[in-house]
Amino acid sequence: MNIKYFRGNKKMKKPLTGLWILAIFFLIVPTYSQAQTGYVSDMLILTFRQGPGNSFQVLQTLKSDTPLTILEEDKGYYKVALTSGETGWVDKQFVVFELPKSKLIDVLTQEKVTLTAKLESLAKELTQLKAQLAIQESDQGEKTVAMATDLKTAMNQNKTLSSQFKESQTLYATLKAQSQNVLEVVKKNKILEEQNIHLANALAQLEKQTTHLFRTGMIKWFLAGVGVLLLGWVIGQSVSSKKRSSSSLLG
Fold first, then answer.
1. Which helix (H) or strand (E) holds 90?
2. How many CA atoms lie within 13 A of 143 on its CB side?
3. Most buried pick, 99, 160, 167, 176, via CB within 10 A?
4. How far apart are CA 119 and CA 150, in angstroms?
5. Contact 68, 80 (CB under 8 A)
6. What is the pLDDT of residues 56-112, one digit of tens each?
7. What is the mean pLDDT of residues 42-62?
8. Which residue ranges form the domains of the chain, and what is each CATH number?
9. Whole-angstrom Cα distance, residue 80 to residue 120?
10. pLDDT tens digits for 173-231?
11. Rounded distance between C-alpha atoms, residue 19 and residue 12, angstroms
């Protein structure tokens, strides 16, 4: 059991040894910070050296508010890059990360210039929009006047059409009443025509009957006259014979 445990411990010690090596490596190697921008603090000059310490050669001096890109840190020094691309080391206690007042003024001035330009552009756009709005209002006013005129015309036309419609209704009612009267007159005329036809037929019959009666009466009168004449002649002959008989007796 002890041998197996010892062998297991040896296997576990290998990864632990690797971790220790990595830890020592990170302690020995200079610490690298995330690249960020710093600035030389409020002092006249700051030495820009070749390495992290006063013993290294001074490459140049940096003025206050000079921007620095932080590359790494070692022994109280920052390795930095200038805007020109040069790299060197500076004492970290003279580096600040707040935007210097001069830079802040420059930024604010630039922002002011930008905002002023934007305001001028917006003022021009506003002027153009006002002009367009005035044109649209003028056009809208003209359209409103035209619409009002069209509406007035339409109302007048509607009034005229309403009056014509009423007149048409009155005329229709009159014609309807007259048509009813005409129908009644037509019916009466038809009845009268039928009555006239009936009366004409009756008159024709009466005329036929009158003609027949007239002829019959004439015959009767003629016969009566002839009878009377015959009767007179007979009577005359009788009287004459009586007279002749009387005369013969007397002679």
1. strand 87-91
2. 6
3. 99
4. 44
5. yes
6. 999 999 988 889 999 999 989 999 999 999 999 999 988 988 887 766 777 788 888
7. 87
8. 1-25 (no CATH), 31-98 (2.30.30.40)
9. 41
10. 887 777 677 677 678 778 888 887 888 888 788 878 877 766 776 766 777 777 778 87
11. 12
**Among candidates 106, 96, 101, 98, which has minimal Cα distance to 46?**
96
Query: Nearest CA to 36 among 74, 62, 67?
Result: 67
Structure tokens at 31: 């610490």
Indicate the average pLDDT of the chain.
Answer: 77
DSSP string, 19-57: HHHHHHHHHHSPPPPPPEEEEE-SSSEEEEESSSSTTSP
8 A C-beta contact, residue 70 and residue 97: no
Tokens of 6: 């010892």
Q: Considering just the CA atoms, what is the radius of gyration of the chain in Å?
A: 76
Question: Are 61 and 47 a contacting pair, CB within 8 Å?
Answer: yes
Contact between residue 68 and residue 40 where contact means Cβ atoms under 8 Å apart: yes
